[in-house]
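Field: COMPLEX_INPUT
Field: COMPONENT_COUNT = four
Field: RESIDUE_TOTAL = 1380
Field: MODE = joint
Values follow.
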Amino acid sequence: MILILKPDATEDQVQHVVARAEEMGFQTHLSRGTFRTIVGLIGNEEKLQAIPLTAIPGVAQVVPVMSPYKLASLDAHPQPSVVRVGRVPVGGGNLAMIAGPCAIESLEQMRTIAAAVKKAGANILRGGAYKPRTSPYSFQGLGEDGLKILREVGDEFDLPVVTEVTDPRCVERVDQYADLLQVGARNMQNFVLLSEVGQAEHPVLLKRGMSATVDDVLMSAEYVLSQGNSNVILCERGVKSFDKATRNLFDVAAVAAVQRLSHLPIIVDPSHATGRPDLIPACAFAGIAVGADGVHIEVHHCPEEAKSDGPQALLPEQYSELVDRIRELASLMGRRIPTADGEVA
Amino acid sequence: MILILKPDATEDQVQHVVARAEEMGFQTHLSRGTFRTIVGLIGNEEKLQAIPLTAIPGVAQVVPVMSPYKLASLDAHPQPSVVRVGRVPVGGGNLAMIAGPCAIESLEQMRTIAAAVKKAGANILRGGAYKPRTSPYSFQGLGEDGLKILREVGDEFDLPVVTEVTDPRCVERVDQYADLLQVGARNMQNFVLLSEVGQAEHPVLLKRGMSATVDDVLMSAEYVLSQGNSNVILCERGVKSFDKATRNLFDVAAVAAVQRLSHLPIIVDPSHATGRPDLIPACAFAGIAVGADGVHIEVHHCPEEAKSDGPQALLPEQYSELVDRIRELASLMGRRIPTADGEVA
Amino acid sequence: MILILKPDATEDQVQHVVARAEEMGFQTHLSRGTFRTIVGLIGNEEKLQAIPLTAIPGVAQVVPVMSPYKLASLDAHPQPSVVRVGRVPVGGGNLAMIAGPCAIESLEQMRTIAAAVKKAGANILRGGAYKPRTSPYSFQGLGEDGLKILREVGDEFDLPVVTEVTDPRCVERVDQYADLLQVGARNMQNFVLLSEVGQAEHPVLLKRGMSATVDDVLMSAEYVLSQGNSNVILCERGVKSFDKATRNLFDVAAVAAVQRLSHLPIIVDPSHATGRPDLIPACAFAGIAVGADGVHIEVHHCPEEAKSDGPQALLPEQYSELVDRIRELASLMGRRIPTADGEVA
Amino acid sequence: MILILKPDATEDQVQHVVARAEEMGFQTHLSRGTFRTIVGLIGNEEKLQAIPLTAIPGVAQVVPVMSPYKLASLDAHPQPSVVRVGRVPVGGGNLAMIAGPCAIESLEQMRTIAAAVKKAGANILRGGAYKPRTSPYSFQGLGEDGLKILREVGDEFDLPVVTEVTDPRCVERVDQYADLLQVGARNMQNFVLLSEVGQAEHPVLLKRGMSATVDDVLMSAEYVLSQGNSNVILCERGVKSFDKATRNLFDVAAVAAVQRLSHLPIIVDPSHATGRPDLIPACAFAGIAVGADGVHIEVHHCPEEAKSDGPQALLPEQYSELVDRIRELASLMGRRIPTADGEVA
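Field: COMPLEX_OUTPUT
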């Protein structure tokens, strides 16, 4: 930690800063420049993160030297982690191909879509049972009935399943039905929920919040990891922007940035990132090309009748064509799509 | 609702759109322009919000004509609402002066600060018992012990109290201790929590999310209102920005924009909006001048020892001077600061 | 300047960094922490700004200690500057009340509006002769004919005049007609234009760019100042945002932030910041309350026939009422509106 | 154009709107809904763009039906345009590989870099002679001497050259030396400059502004096209963001969005988009995968001595490796890299 003092910091203030630092067990290192005095603090920086250093009189700026997360960082785990979802390995060159409708609407609907995406090459089935909707008057999901349908269809088609959990009181229940627990963008800093999924048995799919920085995402992952659940997959799904050309702004560089800081797998969600089916394939390719560990795509056999997010869903035949092209691209980039059985060609 | 069709929409698609709309009980109104066909749908727009209209082939754009919230809108309640927090009226010209530390640290600390802010003219005492911290390694609050301290100190100094609730499982407990339940920025779209506080006995202080639009805030308020709790106070606390000169970007115009759409009181929080004590007074004045129904400010008697957000707290004497000036400004603008007893001079 | 080295910087790299710094005439100060080595550079920081320090192998981060501008900073001039526009003092408690239409359309139009805003209490008349329009097919302004009208009407009503200059080739011409040269938001980093107005005789009104940080604005002011023109007035006019509730996001805190860094006067432009006449008065009050040195407002006697930006103009009678209230508010805040003759009541 | 009237619009206002529209030569189409009246205007929408429709009393919202640009749109030219830079075709499956230093520093430097990038496979050489720097104290470029060096080196290595023009007074001069004229991000809405390059002989490389929407970019291109220069190449180079993990936010989806609206080629610039050499290759791949028509990359043989933007430059050997991989990827995506002679393998 480096403290840059104010240009007009008095000698008393300098001494007070040094005294406070040493009181906390740090070695200090004073450097008096032409215009400013700088205090280097040597010791365990984590302890300092709890101290309001900029509130100490005379301190202008605090420059952290270490990252604020540790379990999520490459320092803790220099090799890319491989997270298993059912039998499917994700990360380390293995791509998660997550597909399915936004919301679980009926057994029939899920069977139709599961059959199609399995055939296309998806290895994880998605479907929402608890839907976080901006309007209280919109369809809120089928709840536990939806979970049962998802599990049944996952078993029938031999696909591991992922579904969102929005309520800390439901984590245990969702953990019984699902192979992967999704925490949505709006809940990325719902720390109560993060702590709860940190105690779940199954891995967690953590979506980036709409205005979360790369560091914020990794701090949220740290919440889950610090509770003992070491299986976290991150997901870039677009951030808020001034441009309404796309629903969100797909931050493809964040995938590469995360991979230089963390060992956790990170996938992309071009469905939410763009909100436009006509751009989804191109953005899925971009995600694979940049190095993402998988692609999350919403697929519906009849978007105009979907109960949620229909306008951004791909049709099964569009998805199938997309997977074929992703397979080629992945192969060129030295990666592969495991089957739902976890077989890696 | 207006549907703008694609330039190349076929006659079949036009007929399909009309048929779908009439099937849902709407009258349609077709307008064929030089380059585009437009379909006006006449009827209850709410029903349409659930339908993925842009997923219908041939539809390019959907233009809603009504706002998606109703209980929160001026249509439902054309006069400004007055929400009572303890005996303090908020709204309709009455200003909430909320002050206190970020986190409740001890009985002693709360007594010191409560005495000071009461004397300065604050009419509501704040203090956090459950702290949503970005790092799992930071101080997380005293929990129920904190709530007890807050209640005790509020009673001693005859100040109604506000504290944040972060967990739907704690809403009932917090509702027993507090006079006003805060939903924080990071939980503004935690719809599970919103539904729960919608069933609480006490009013709700709903802070704007970091990348929430004015419409998003009002939709979140609608969640609370739709559960039966009609007492919601909104709070502008800055949004995410590219400029790090201030912690967030204080969106003072949003206060005025909300007041032209909704009857709910809206206050400002210059502490979180700026993160800089040197800018808090100026921004508090701006908030009052723009028409806000109150000011939320963090006050600590020893910021450098505060366990949370110390660097952005005002000292009690700074707060006292600020309230004096706010009182004058409010008076010029035709508004007033009620006492904690609810007396309006 | 502080260089934070990478965790894995080799001893050779450390020595290379030190050697490079000393070669440039700096004293170095090495601080080896538990995890990182830090190099403090003591000497004239300006010289370092030209050197790509982060390109030196082993360097992770460069932390500047001084601000990159000097003439614009409070260090260079600790008291607020007062800039004279015609005979009107701006800054140091004196408010610029700039009003007029977006575009100069005719002599008749300018006379009508000038008479009205003068009577209302405006002390500077605005009008655009060269309009930077996003569409090449929109009205581009009357050019030099417009300048002549503006000058004539300014003289007739004894109001100093401000108009935008967009082309470095026109600076000399505009300087002959106008009392204040405006550089618009879209040209805030048009450094060629900045250099040119830096050589003009009259003062410059520099509007903040749509995604310019406070530091960016001050660097652009530095361009003008460094050419010898020491009379610069800044203007906050809203930045780009994800929320379309207002045309731009009015960054009222930036006014206070600038005043803690620079001696230059800074005014607000609620017309462009909000784009909504119904919010302009409230945001003008907020600007005055936060400490701005004036208000720029677009006024048109017939907005629906205006050739540019009609939808955001106030009517003359609305403007008149607004000035009355601003006068009261300014007086409470210890500031005042000089007359166009420069008289300060 | 569709006008949505206010809920409380009077019958007089409705009639005034209709009268105004018909006066301008439009057919109107009135649709009275349950809550709102809507007026469709049928006719040439371009004429309406000049009219401040929202300033007409009773009008709440104006919904345009056509895009505001025409020469840039796919309607005007349904097939992708191919722009020739020297002999190199860009667009329609042909990739521009633009490489070189940020600033031209000397003949020696340019010869070294040109030799390396030519060998690596670049087909256009870049170098800045006029540098738009945020600080007036930074290196501003060699000016015309730089242009001469660039031309000489381009001729020696048989590479067409691109350089930035920042001043309308220099367009003619730059047009004499360069094969492609760059308009930088900060000048994207410098309409005076756009008009000037619209009259140049050579094609224009138009970089997206830091907070420009996709529509803004296309409107700026329209400025150039409307002056008669039909050869415009667009360039996505990142937009402003709240996250400092990368210098800007690389908006890869914008490439795909532009291609669905316009026939103009669009390339990506991962150097400026990320500002981080370690992320440049991954983002270049993403750009190619999403469908970009080329890649602009800064290359310097000694970044730590570069006079501008050294920290974001690739080394020649890194660039060479990158081009090899881009070639493979392009081939998979059905595209190709022409040689500098314009040969397409």
